[in-house]
Amino acid sequence: MAKITKLDDIVSLCKRRGFIFQSSEIYGGLASCYDYGPLGAELKRNVRNAWWKSTVQMRDDVVGLDCSILMHPLVWKASGHADKFADIIAECKKCNTRSRVDHLKNHTEEHAAHVPVETAMADAKNLSKKVCPACGTIGQFTDPMPFRLMFETKMGANADDSMTLFLRPETAQGIFANFRNVLDSTRVKIPFGIAQIGKSFRNEVTTKAFIFRTREFEQAELEFFCEPGTDDEWFARWKEIRFNWYIGLGIKKENLRMREHSKDELAHYAKGCVDVEYKFPFGSGDWQELEGIANRTDFDLRQHQRGIRTLNDWFEKNGDLSKISLKEEAEDWLKGPLSYFDEEKKRRFVPYVIEPSAGIDRSTLAFLVDAYDEDEANGEIRNVLRFHPALAPIKAAIFPLVKKDGMPEIAMKIYDDLKKYFTCFYDEKGAVGRRYRRQDEAGTPYCITVDGQTKEDDTVTVRQRDSMKQERIAVGQLKNYLREKLDV
Ligand code: ATP
Predict the structure, then answer these.
(1) Domains of the chain
(2) Nearest residue CA, atom 20 of ligand 1?
């Protein structure tokens, strides 16, 4: 039976094999920031590509976008982030540890999101029964206070004319801000989606569990625009599509679930929201959010329409966001640039938005945890990452059985041919059994070995990672064999 994975096993494998390192490790490390090593960079790239392939490439109704991280400050005023994107924190009077109030729960399941400030403030009344996660003291907290999650930076060379900008805390706003550009430059018609993958930044109060919650992370977000009235149907469809994406890439069904948000958890503008949750092996085997899928109604596009109307005030107030309140909608707001005219129905409306918002790092962690396994091979414990072939960092490793009799030359030629199509690895060092183990630990689905027979009949052995079965394949067939098996 497969062993229950502990996060420590994953962290040490990741470091040992070059998947993930602590950022700035040689300087003692930078908390909650991580670097992806050679295998990790490939794995993460494959996760990104798998999302892009299923969300953009394979669909006729979604286009992609790649926006800058820095945006006009009014974007964050209009989106609500400048005023409301904060966690409510309280400090333990005993040990001075600051915690997110919504995380101070006396139960094992943790599923709190960044809730609106008002909701979190209301939740924070009952701190008398909460336990400090650092020292265990009960009910000894300071008054709750908001803690802004957006990182600030300055643009401009001189102190007096530089402008305060934010590192984006989500990629979605770049999509809304380009809604009109995409409509005007493509032939998309509603219903359609705009997708983006990119870095986001949040000054999280508490970070934890390796790459699960970090201050710099990558998101994969889709804003799917549809006609009001069709939103419930699209919401249901995207829930199904996104759940099945994880299952299709090998996540075990028993480790994945969908959790519907209760009414009081919902943001005021959201009509519905679910989290796709994975049973991560930390805490006490907690279900934790992998992805949020929300019906955001027409809130975002309307807000940006109000934001655009406010632009002149922003200049007059020298860009001081705190002095600006968004202009109320004029009666004819439907004529605004972020509305949509349906040519067939001759009707203008502001589209509703369904938003599946996933984390590339979090799903990479889930894929790593889910793939991790230990079994026995020739009486020895074998560590193996059973990645779906589409995610495996290396698709095939090529070995000469021994470093003589012309085998390395043949193996190198096979490697040179195959690397044009797949990420491959050549290895001639040490006993072949050990080379297999190293590839099992990296999650490589196929190992190809050139041996004495290769010279006679032009065949090689192909060994499968999971079953460890070997078969002989003609060298000329290798490319097609791998194409078919890897489905890439
Ligand atoms: P959480 O409750 O975990 O803070 P959230 O509900 O605030 O998350 P969203 O704003 O819905 O998260 O972001 C969408 C996705 O982006 C999340 O499901 C997650 O996969 C990813 N994500 C958000 N914050 C982080 C973070 N600090 N580190 C890594 N991934 C993150």
Answers:
(1) 7-75+168-366 (3.30.930.10), 394-486 (3.40.50.800)
(2) 359
